[in-house]
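Example 3.2
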Amino acid sequence: MSGDFLDRLKSARYTVALLFEQSEGDFGPIFARLDMEIRQREELEARVKQVLEEGKPPKRS
């Protein structure tokens, strides 16, 4: 997975936060969605890293 992609998402999250602070518009839903997607991506990357370190696939639930 590309760390560059995650870095761009994180940068976008902070840009949206700055826009929200400086604007009277409602950027809340946009920021919340972006934040959720970044957190999901970080969790997925952590799981993939763990699987690669263990050398076996995770159990399906």
